[in-house]
Specification:
The complex is a heterodimer.
Chain A lengths: L3 E4 L2 E4 L5 E7 L5 E8 L3 E10 L2 E4 L7 E2 L9 E3 L8 E8 L11 E2 L3 E5 L1
Parallel strand pairs in A: 2-11
Antiparallel strand pairs in A: 1-3, 3-8, 4-5, 4-9, 5-6, 7-8, 9-10, 9-11
Chain B lengths: L2 E3 L4 E5 L4 E3 L2 E3 L4 E8 L5 E7 L5 E3 L5 E5 L4 E6 L8 E9 L9 E2 L3 E6 L1
Parallel strand pairs in B: 2-12
Antiparallel strand pairs in B: 1-4, 3-9, 5-6, 5-10, 7-8, 8-9, 10-11, 10-12
Classes of the chains: A mainly beta, B mainly beta.
């Protein structure tokens, strides 16, 4: 089944404790992205990656890191989480936006993060 | 700057009645427009998109949307609502003529409640 998976689905942590949220897709998509969803704000892009070893900042990158060592994986790293990073996080993937026209993005199930 | 507005936080309709969820957008180039649906504790699911061509776009689960360039709108519609359509709906836009960041700009979401 074609899908985007994220782990963990739920996470409660404390300020300053490094964490990683994994994201994996099995559709051979070049493009991957992380969003955060907050009430009343919709989804906002954190980071994106056009292909392996190519990443760039989205609209709200502060406090986050990403890496893209393999095509299928795009982990999101919070080196020193803070309470304002409490949110619902979504990973998404698609074929290259430019080459595939306006390819729709496929979303993972979400990770609900609480930072105390 | 690109933006999307969903003017209604919530839309209530009776089962069997037609429904409309409104969306207006602002981009500097040609718009690529999308509708996604989010069920509780699930990721976003793609419903439909407008890239070019016919202004009326048909999508999944009987939904359709009408692109209106002069009004910069992309309203989501369904002729006969089902209780199972109750969910959170997001409109999103990407500027088709901009750099290929793939970034989607999301509206804040509209909760659709369909009552039996």
């Amino acid at each position: 089944e074609a899908q985007v998976t994220q782990n963990p689905r739920y996470l409660i942590t404390v300020t300053g404790k490094k964490l990683t949220v994994t994201c994996s897709q099995n559709m051979n998509h070049e493009y991957m992205s992380w969003y955060r969803q907050d009430p009343g704000l919709g989804l906002r892009q954190i980071y994106y990656s056009m292909n392996v070893e190519v990443t760039d900042k989205g609209d709200v990158p502060e406090g986050y890191k990403v890496s893209r060592k393999e095509k299928r994986n795009f982990p999101l790293i919070l080196e020193s989480p803070s309470p304002n990073q409490t949110s619902l996080y979504f990973c998404a993937s698609s074929f290259t936006p430019g080459l595939a026209g306006a390819a729709e993005q496929f979303f993972g199930p979400g990770t609900r993060l609480t930072v105390l | 700057a690109q933006s999307v507005a969903q003017p209604e936080d919530q839309v209530n309709v009776a089962e069997g009645n037609p429904l409309t969820v409104k969306c207006t957008y602002s981009v500097s180039g040609n718009p690529y427009l999308f509708w996604y649906v989010q069920y509780p504790n699930r990721g976003l699911q793609f419903l439909l998109k407008y890239i070019t061509g016919d202004n009326l776009v048909k999508g999944s689960y009987g939904f359709e949307a009408e692109f209106n360039k002069s009004q910069t709108s992309f309203h989501l519609k369904k002729p006969s609502a089902l209780v199972s359509d109750s969910a959170l709906y997001f409109c999103a836009v990407r500027d088709g003529s901009s750099s290929n960041t793939g970034k989607l700009i999301f509206g804040q979401g509209t909760t659709l409640q369909v009552k039996p």
